[in-house]
Amino acid sequence: MSANIAPVRKTNAHQPPTSGNPASSTQKRRPPNYRKLWDIPRYLAIIAISLLCLVPIAVMLRIALTPQVDWRRMPIDWLQAADWSAFDRVLSGPFPGALLNSFIIAIVTTAIVIVLAAMGGHALARMRGKHKERFLFLVLGTRMGPAVVFALPIFLLASSVGLVDTYPGIIAVYIVYNLAFGIWMMHGFFLDIPPEVEEAGLVDGLSEWGVFRKLSLPMASSGVIATATLVFILTWNEFFYAFVLTQQRASTFPTTIPGYFGAFQVEWGSMFAASTLGILPPVIFGILARKWLAKGLSGGLVD
Which of 43, 91, 102, 208 is 20 to 30 A removed from 116 (C-alpha atoms)? Predict the structure, then answer.
């Protein structure tokens, strides 16, 4: 008894499916990404907080561009024509000299602090011993005291050596004032550098100074720029020591602001115009260093 067996047609396993048959398509549709939808409220919150932080600056600038007779008028007329007379009064007085003093003092202080803090932070990062944390806390402890406690002794010392109202006097105070902060910051950045990299440099014939200068310091460049930016801002905005130790020749930008408070009235336009000009240098400095600043503050050595 025989049976009719239909011939089996062989198919090529590697033959691509025909485009006309959707059932044989191996491509799967990607599921919708709902995570991006949840990111929208977060971005809206960030934008709202950013705009809220900009409100005081906008009010300050608007009042600086408002005529004197309209200073107390509320609500603020944002569409009013700009009046630049307050900026003319500020720029024709002693303010430009104080702004230049602040720039010189902040740049010199930042440069010296970064050099000393980089060396001190690297040494502490490679230090071994049970007393290391105590020493680090002692270093940072010099930054914890209130300025009013040290102001009188520093003023008496500066008066005895003739450093009141001079660049060297106020710069020396700012170096001591910011050095502990700089060392603490640089110590953390150098800890992120693997010790094996420095050991390899020593094996290759570099001295300890060569390893620091050619290997460690370039690898911590983002941390150096972040620390320099913060030290510059802290020095630029410091008021108390500058008010105590300077008079006219070395007076800085923050010490000129109280001069706009008179016995019977406050020159709001001039004060806000001076404040607007005073915030421009650190803002520009931060914008130029924003790439390295973000990388340094995140502790990132990875590009």
Answer: 102
3-state secondary structure of 273: helix
Question: Hey, is 261 helix, strand or coil?
Answer: strand
Q: What is the mean pLDDT of residues 258-270?
A: 83
Q: CB pairs under 8 A, 24+ apart, for 180-183?
A: 180/139, 180/140, 180/141, 180/142, 180/143, 181/140, 181/143, 181/230, 181/231, 181/234, 182/113, 182/114, 182/116, 182/117, 182/121, 182/227, 182/231, 183/116, 183/117, 183/120, 183/121, 183/124, 183/139
Q: What is the pLDDT of residues 221-259, one digit of tens each?
A: 888 988 999 999 999 999 999 999 998 889 999 999 988
Cα separation, 216 vs 220, in Å, equals 6
Name the H helices within the chain. 35-64, 85-91, 95-125, 132-141, 147-160, 167-191, 195-203, 208-211, 217-219, 221-237, 240-245, 253-256, 268-288, 290-297
